[in-house]
Design goal:
alpha/beta; 9 helices; 7 strands; 47% helix; oxidoreductase; SDR family NAD(P)-dependent oxidoreductase
Length: 265
């Protein structure tokens, strides 16, 4: 799908991959709908994009409040008009052992990463089907393809996104809808700093793999290429984070031994 003059809604637009997607897509001529919890950050971002607030929209949303997302999105559509692409990017990670992690943390991860994605898609997909054109892009993770220590909740929520997108792709294949699942590996963002610990607080420290990961600008370039080519699923990253799904697929026992030996603290 070409993005010039298309309206593209991005969740998690206030930082990381989401913010960079807004910048690069706006440079390509897209009209952006920016969503996250931080209104001030979104306004500043919109003002920095080509055309500013006269061309782009700011819609603060909390993905953890999935029950109210349908009404919140519907209230904006009359002003925004047809949305051609939804990018489900908003999410949160986790770094804690299963035995040390409170159940409430698992609930929060599923509400934000999975149910937030489902609710946003539920809100915008019907109008895309009606116009027989549209694209749903969901940012899962390599953790949605393979598991590793300290990520039981995060990985579970991202596996759910991959499964959801596989089903959605099959259901909408004859209705003009393209579904792209993106599985980033280690990307240089604040995802590790903001990751939840076992008590549900941000761990406030980075991971070595993230520090040495792929620059976010390159990651977003790869995502946009996949959008333009109407691809179904891509893995984005470098090194072991990009190779992990392939190793798991063809050498599952080797991968499981490697994952058990790796230390993350």
């Amino acid at each position: 799908m070409e993005v010039n003059n298309k309206t593209i809604w991005v969740t998690g637009a206030s930082s990381g991959i989401g913010m960079e997607l807004c910048k690069q897509l706006a440079e390509r001529g897209a009209r952006m709908v920016l969503s996250a919890r931080s209104k001030d950050t979104l306004i500043a971002l919109a003002e920095s994009l080509p055309g500013g607030l006269g061309r782009h929209w700011v819609v603060p949303l909390d993905l953890a409040d999935a029950d109210n997302l349908l009404d919140a999105v519907a209230a904006q559509l009359a002003e925004i008009g047809p949305v051609h692409v939804l990018i489900n990017n908003g999410g949160i990670s986790q770094r804690s052992l299963f035995v040390d992690t409170e159940l409430s943390v698992y609930r929060q991860l599923m509400e934000v990463n999975y149910l937030g994605t489902v609710a946003m898609t539920k809100a915008l997909l019907p109008s895309m089907i009606a116009q027989q054109q549209g694209m749903i892009v969901s940012i899962s993770s390599v953790a949605g393809k393979v598991g590793s220590k300290l990520r039981t909740g995060y990985s579970g929520s991202k596996y759910a996104v991959v499964g959801f997108m596989d089903c959605l792709r099959a259901e909408t294949a004859q209705q003009g809808i393209q579904c792209l699942t993106v599985c980033p590996g280690s990307i240089k963002t604040n995802i590790a700093v903001n990751a939840l610990n076992g008590s549900g607080e941000a761990q406030n420290k980075d991971d070595e793999s993230i520090i040495n990961g792929m620059p976010v600008e390159q990651c977003v370039q790869d995502i946009i290429k996949a959008m333009l080519k109407d691809q179904d699923e891509i893995v984005v990253g470098k090194g072991i984070s990009a190779l992990a799904p392939t190793i798991k697929r063809f050498f599952p026992r080797l991968f499981n031994r490697m994952s058990a030996r790796m230390e993350y603290r």
